[in-house]
Specification:
The protein is α+β, with helices and mostly antiparallel strands. It is 36% helix and 19% strand. The longest helix is centred in the first third of the chain and has 50 residues, at 19-68. The chain is rod-shaped.
């Protein structure tokens, strides 16, 4: 057989991909695409969680700002009553312990105005008297309180923070 003719036949056979090479390439590309789709899904979940946490932190800070300027004890009753007084509403809370047990859906901003766009969130507030020397729970009428704010998203807790406020 002529060597030129033989080389031509070998070259003609190798011009395309074999079925095995094509299926292997499809498998590799398919696996890469599937991995990227899983990565996108995971990134989306983490972005949602981050956005939810940022909103929760914002809502907790709103409560901290709302109570920052309030007096430690009731201007009328003094230390005698811990918690809100009879007939008080959010608009008339006049001391920090009035927020004890308060829960708000939709949440409120630092001016105590409801934020209806965030109606899937709830702010739950607990104010507890603490011993100012050890910061453990104490009877009411002490010179320190711990304010705890829990932020819930669709009923599940997303964020919780607390701080201690001393009588100045």
């Amino acid at each position: 057989m002529n060597p030129r003719l033989r080389a031509c036949r070998i070259t003609n056979r190798r011009r395309g991909f074999t079925l095995i090479e094509a299926s292997l390439a499809v498998t590799i590309v398919g696996t890469a695409i599937l991995a990227m789709m899983q990565l996108f899904a995971t990134c989306t979940q983490h972005n949602r969680a981050g956005a939810s946490m940022t909103t929760a932190l914002y809502l907790a800070n709103n409560i901290q700002e709302a109570v920052a300027d309030l007096p430690f004890n009731d201007p009328v009753g003094g230390k005698s009553n811990f918690g809100k007084e009879t007939g008080e509403t959010l608009a008339t809370f006049d001391d920090i312990d009035d927020f004890n047990g308060y829960s708000s859906t939709p949440p409120i901003d630092s001016q105590r105005t409801p934020v209806p766009e965030l109606s899937t969130y709830t702010q739950a507030i607990i104010v507890q008297a603490v011993d100012p020397n050890r910061l453990t729970l104490a009877a009411s009428g002490t010179d320190a309180v711990r304010v705890t704010v829990r932020i819930l998203y669709d009923g599940a807790e997303v964020y919780q923070t607390s701080w201690v406020r001393m009588r100045t």
